[in-house]
């Protein structure tokens, strides 16, 4: 491992040396916060956009029926309250006095239209699948919306919360893409592809009004350039958009402040359970004992990530901290493999192949795992591909091992169905390792149909323990949310999802 870590320190040193070279003073606009993002949003229509930038900027422009708290549980949004008289009926009572950015009042008719446009195919979107259990929606009066389900589905509330669904005006079709009109705390001003998006405070907002009068999202694809823009003061903020080494370098800049908080993005290592070797749970358990997270967290992620024990983040109400865990124990790994009938010949028990993308940290991590597995007699071959090819192989099952991240999708326990239910093999879901356990399928189905959260929690606890023993994944670490900003940005509060909600409370110092 030493050679890889030495290489990392060399890169960090180069980054530290380069940062001052292009530094120059540029006075920022006193009334505009400049936020650096990596790419343009694909579609600001909240019914359509599923990329990170679309959803995060969209949350500032559009309100949803519900919000999410620090435990990733749903709370009131446009709906002040809701009733569930039976598992097939959800009744939402809307906040009064809400208006869209163009002055139109928001009513139940708008909510019904937003969802009906997805259910009836007026808008083509992959988000439609999230509402496949909805039979029909009623709007009996201006402030009441009734959802009738085909079968019980406790994930409905999550799928009606911020990030997943925003409400658009009645009759809105594709024009929302070009001219977004919502009811959120900020309103759309302009956008130029691959350059910038500008939004401004909604002075008529029904909730707590933001302090910022104007935000300019500037698109900067290159990570080094992002750091330079922050250092010279031509940009005010960037969240989760810099490498760990760059953040360490920027910590010494007197005009910059770095805020960090636990995040929900999960890095994991997955197995193909159709593989003749990896279908043996003892092999997967042995690998779990062989993986040592500590040096990776220290040298590659520089302490900006925390060990994971579940696909769910620790902030989740459904998280179980008491599941089986595999501490680094190579001797136990060797004992398990010996007992399983995999003796070593010339130090090698068998070969495995791991596929990765060309992303630098992924390749370095795979190289470290290669050395760790060699210690227990497993020869790990690494095959690197451009991301599209790599992901196509992953979704088609053409792999033995791979590593990816869950970004947002793991914040709700519905992830267990999507990633581990035997009915969700690709292309029907993300059970890419072809894991199958009838008990897990049954627990997931019962939890999805259960309205009482305490009962659901017990069901999901059992799911997490079975998964911990079966090891279809090795849950590696959760990435911290890291916000780098100039000191003129104040009152920025991070949330677990790492979205742009901090812009709702932030303000600019005029000093």
Question: What's the quick description here?
Answer:
With 511 residues, the protein is of the alpha+beta class. Helices cover 30% and strands 23% of the residues. The protein is built from 15 helices and 21 strands.
Please, could you describe this protein's structure?
α1 packs across α7 (244-250) and α14 runs antiparallel to α15. The protein starts with a helix and ends with a strand. It is globular and about 75 Å long. The strands form six sheets. The chain has a six-stranded mixed sheet with strand order 14-18-13-17-15-16. β6 (134-141) and β7 (144-149) form a beta hairpin. The chain is built from 15 helices and 21 strands. It is an alpha+beta fold and 511 residues long.
């Amino acid at each position: 491992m030493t050679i890889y870590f030495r290489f990392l320190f060399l890169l960090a040193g180069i980054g530290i040396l380069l940062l001052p070279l292009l530094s120059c003073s540029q006075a920022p606009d006193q009334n505009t916060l400049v936020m650096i993002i990596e790419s343009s949003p694909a579609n600001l229509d909240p019914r359509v956009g599923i990329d990170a930038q679309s959803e995060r900027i969209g949350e500032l422009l559009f309100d949803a029926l519900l919000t999410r708290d620090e435990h990733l549980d749903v709370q009131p949004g446009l709906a002040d309250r809701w009733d569930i008289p039976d598992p097939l009926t959800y009744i939402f009572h809307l906040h009064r006095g809400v208006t869209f950015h163009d002055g139109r009042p928001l009513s139940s008719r708008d909510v019904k239209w937003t969802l009906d446009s997805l259910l009836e195919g007026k808008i083509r979107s992959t988000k439609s699948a999230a509402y496949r259990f909805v039979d029909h929606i009623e709007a009996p009066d201006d402030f009441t919306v009734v959802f009738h389900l085909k079968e019980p589905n406790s994930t409905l509330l999550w799928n009606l919360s911020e990030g997943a669904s925003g409400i658009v005006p009645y009759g809105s079709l594709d024009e929302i893409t070009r001219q977004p009109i919502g009811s959120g705390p900020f309103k759309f001003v302009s956008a130029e592809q691959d350059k910038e998006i500008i939004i401004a405070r909604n002075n008529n907002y029904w909730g707590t009004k933001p302090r910022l009068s104007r935000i300019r999202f500037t698109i900067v694809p290159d990570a080094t350039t992002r750091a330079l823009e922050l250092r010279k003061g031509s940009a005010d903020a960037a969240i989760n958009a810099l490498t760990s080494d760059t953040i360490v370098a920027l910590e010494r800049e007197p005009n910059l402040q770095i805020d960090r908080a636990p995040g929900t993005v999960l890095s994991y290592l997955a197995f193909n359970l159709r593989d003749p070797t990896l279908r043996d749970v003892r092999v997967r358990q042995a690998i779990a004992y062989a993986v040592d997270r500590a040096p990776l967290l220290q040298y590659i992620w520089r302490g900006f990530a925390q060990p994971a024990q579940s696909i769910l983040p620790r902030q989740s109400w459904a998280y179980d901290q008491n599941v089986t865990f595999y501490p680094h124990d190579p001797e136990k790994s060797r004992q398990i493999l010996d007992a399983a009938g995999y003796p070593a010949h010339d130090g090698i028990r068998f070969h495995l192949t791991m596929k990765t993308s060309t992303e630098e940290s992924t390749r370095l991590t795979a190289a470290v795992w290669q050395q760790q597995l060699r210690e227990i007699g497993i020869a790990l071959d690494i095959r690197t591909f451009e991301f599209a090819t790599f992901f196509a192989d992953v979704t088609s099952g053409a792999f033995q091992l791979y590593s990816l991240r869950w970004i947002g999708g793991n914040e709700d326990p519905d992830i267990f169905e999507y990633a581990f239910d035997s009915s969700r093999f690709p292309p029907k879901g993300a059970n890419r390792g072809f894991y199958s356990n009838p008990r897990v399928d049954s627990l997931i189905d019962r939890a999805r149909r259960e309205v009482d959260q305490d009962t659901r929690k017990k069901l999901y606890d059992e799911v997490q323990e079975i998964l911990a023993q079966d090891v279809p994944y090795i849950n590696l670490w959760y990435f911290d949310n890291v916000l780098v900003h100039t000191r003129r940005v104040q009152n920025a509060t991070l949330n677990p999802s790492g979205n742009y909600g901090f812009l709702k409370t932030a303000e600019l110092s005029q000093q």
